[in-house]
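Renewal narrative, Specific Aim 1. Our central claim is that a sequence can be written position by position from structural information alone. The example that follows is taken directly from our test logs and has not been curated for this report. It begins with the structure tokens describing the chain, in the order in which they were read.
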């Protein structure tokens, strides 16, 4: 006779397993894994601890719990991550969207709103899952032309699928290639969350990040500035007068990146915006419009 296992008991066992493996948030992760398997919300799971798991559900929970205990990221196991109020599909081909990256969207939306009548062209460089550009395309009202670039064809496939899922697939032009090079012409707004982790920081990262997220989307030279430096060198040729560049940076990089930005745009206004933790997170370059003639 097969022993029946209730959701509450399975949850307790999973929490203990993840805690023993050193997972930072064992209770939360266990709840999300089991809710994912049962097709419930976390609240629904907790409200019905008496639910009996089928043998298939139990086997799947054991598999996903083992993989999470091996420090595979939760988002790769459930296949999704929420960002700016929307759920995005993620795979090991893309970096998992972080909450602090929402600051890019929060800064870009009012900039675009001020140009809704005249229109503007926008590019997300290193689009990954598409979370940034899709959030903008779904929320911005106006005559905007959206572009997304990535070196990885696999990442572009994930971004295109997410754009279709959120109903903006026909509003975004996707380009495969290096940084700004694939663009057909200049733009008004450049957004970028490029790799900015230095190789010298690799061993300090959590195993979930170091061993499972794509290295192409994480590391950028010895000190994390290689791709940022290349983008800032390219940007003057691609950013129209009066245009804006919003660039996510790592904690402690503000001074070095601001110096690079000043060399690339000597007449621009350059500011840095902190995230909710108080760390410098987004470098903001605002260029001057062309003088009226």
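The sequence written for that structure reads:
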């Amino acid at each position: 006779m097969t022993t029946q296992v209730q959701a509450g008991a399975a949850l307790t066992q999973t929490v203990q397993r993840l805690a023993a493996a050193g997972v930072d948030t064992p209770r939360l992760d266990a709840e999300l894994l089991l809710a994912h398997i049962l097709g419930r919300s976390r609240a629904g799971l907790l409200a019905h601890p008496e639910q009996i798991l089928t043998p298939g559900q139990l086997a799947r929970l054991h598999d996903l719990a083992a993989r999470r205990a091996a420090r595979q990221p939760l988002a790769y196991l459930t296949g999704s991550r929420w960002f700016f109020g929307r759920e995005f599909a993620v795979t090991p081909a893309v970096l998992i969207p972080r909450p602090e990256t929402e600051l890019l969207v929060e800064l870009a939306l009012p900039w675009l709103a001020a140009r809704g009548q005249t229109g503007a062209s926008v590019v997300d460089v290193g689009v990954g899952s598409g979370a940034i550009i899709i959030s903008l395309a779904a929320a911005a009202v106006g005559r905007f032309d959206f572009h997304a670039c990535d070196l990885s064809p696999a990442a572009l496939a994930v971004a295109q699928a997410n754009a279709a899922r959120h109903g903006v697939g026909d509003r975004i032009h996707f380009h495969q290639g290096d940084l700004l090079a694939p663009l057909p012409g200049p733009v008004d707004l450049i957004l970028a969350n490029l790799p900015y982790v230095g190789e010298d920081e690799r061993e300090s990262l959590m195993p979930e990040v170091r061993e499972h997220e794509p290295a192409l989307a994480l590391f950028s030279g010895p000190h994390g500035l290689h791709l940022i430096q290349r983008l800032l060198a390219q940007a003057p040729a691609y950013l129209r007068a009066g245009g804006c560049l919003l660039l996510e940076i790592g904690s402690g990089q503000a001074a070095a990146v601001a110096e690079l930005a000043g060399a690339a745009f000597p007449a621009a206004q350059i500011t840095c915006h902190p995230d909710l933790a108080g760390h410098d997170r987004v470098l903001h370059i605002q260029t001057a419009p062309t003088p009226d003639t």
